[in-house]
Write a structure and sequence with these properties.
The chain contains 8 helices and 12 strands.
Length: 382
């Protein structure tokens, strides 16, 4: 997917922080690994040198005590000194500090052993191994290579995660952009109609233009109610009181009477009193959006049936069937059953929010013949 400028900026910031964090972790890990492996190598070399020094000391003791021939294995670099630190025999003549058992310079490790105890005049046995710096370089090279591989691996993961985290933000921005465009379109229609009808009424004084003005004003009022609830629902105070949903249905039908006539729709009502305890404005908004949805998607010149029985409200219309994949998301914000029917995709989301608030159950069924929205209210016990 191509990224917008703001998305690229957000991804760059995330990636920069991620790279710095991963880089610091890998560098710290590499530093620790290098030192651990260095110490491990040094311990192995010292152990090897100890064995070599012990072999020389044992041979010296055996040579003096048992008259055996004093021999030193050829693969050992050694230096033998007497108690005055004078040279006796050896492969090298470097001056080595003898205060400690282990001495190390840039490229060699020396082990100083005193276990000969003066046999054959030997007081100090010094063995060494060189080429240490090359071995350290090899360790460093391997760790750097492994660290680079880890860095590239985590770089790929970071890029994937960054794109993954941007996806919800992109979807929200796209939904918001679509919502703004749809809301503008929804507002434009009644406003334009209102202005034209006002001009016509002024010129002709025809009463039909007054009906159009009333319808446009009611549409604007309906849009305003939805937008207000969608943005300010958390801030508004509830006014719970017993209300009759049947009377609210009748009021809302009068609200939509001009729009109903314009589409040639008819209503079949089978309603009975249903007293619930809730905020009247929220219940009015719930029912208004369900009826508005039924009117919007109903075929022209068809019948909409409203049934309220035992606090179970069903609103049934004849319309295009809602696809199964749409049924799963129809109550989500910015979702619409049909994109060509207008609307901004928050009406049914508001219905669901109100149902969740009061623990009403809501369901929808759709087939080739009809679409039914059903809400089961919690009947007041008062």
């Amino acid at each position: 997917m191509s990224l917008s400028r703001s998305e690229r900026k957000a991804l760059f910031r995330f990636f920069l922080i991620y790279i710095i964090a991963v880089g610091l972790v890998i560098i710290s890990f590499a530093y620790l690994q290098y030192n651990i492996k260095k110490e491990s190598l040094k311990d192995k070399i010292v152990t090897k040198l100890q064995r070599e020094a012990f072999t020389i000391a044992s041979n010296a003791i055996d040579a003096q005590m048992q008259g055996k021939t004093f021999t030193i294995p050829q693969n050992i670099d050694f230096l033998l000194l007497d108690k005055n630190k004078k040279f006796i025999n050896g492969d090298f003549k470097e001056e080595i500090p003898l205060e400690h058992s282990i001495y190390q310079n840039d490229d060699c490790i020396y082990y100083i052993d005193k276990s000969a105890k003066g046999h054959l005049g030997i007081e100090y046995i010094i063995v060494k191994e060189c080429g240490i710096s090359a071995k350290y370089q090899k360790i460093l090279k391997n760790i750097v290579l492994l660290s680079l591989l880890y860095f590239l691996f985590f770089l790929g993961i970071g890029w994937y995660l960054g794109r993954l985290f941007l996806q919800p933000m992109r979807e929200n921005l796209e939904n918001l952009d679509r919502f703004i465009k749809d809301s503008t379109h929804e507002l434009n229609t009644p406003v334009t109609t209102l202005l034209l009808a006002t001009q016509k009424l002024k010129k002709t004084n025809n009463p039909k233009y007054l009906d159009i003005i009333i319808m446009s004003a009611r549409l604007l009022s309906s849009i305003h109610q939805d937008l207000t609830y969608a943005t300010l629902a958390k801030k508004r105070k509830n006014h719970l009181q017993p209300i009759d949903t049947a009377s609210i249905i009748e009021d809302i039908l009068r609200f939509f009477d001009v729009l109903i006539d314009q589409k040639g729709l008819s209503f079949s009502l089978e309603i009975e009193p249903c007293i619930i305890e809730a905020d009247p404005d929220e219940i009015r908004l719930l029912i208004k959006n369900l009826i508005d949805n039924a009117i919007k998607y109903a075929f022209k010149n068809s019948e909409i049936k409203i049934v309220l029985h035992k606090c179970r409200l069903s609103i049934i219309n004849r319309s295009k069937p809602i696809p199964n994949e749409k049924l799963k998301t129809i109550f989500e914000r910015y979702q619409r059953a049909e994109s060509d029917q207008g609307g901004y995709g928050i009406g049914l989301h508001i219905v669901q929010r109100i149902c969740q608030k009061y623990k009403f159950s809501i369901s929808v069924e759709s087939n080739e013949e009809k679409t039914t929205f059903t809400v089961v209210f919690n009947q007041s016990r008062k």
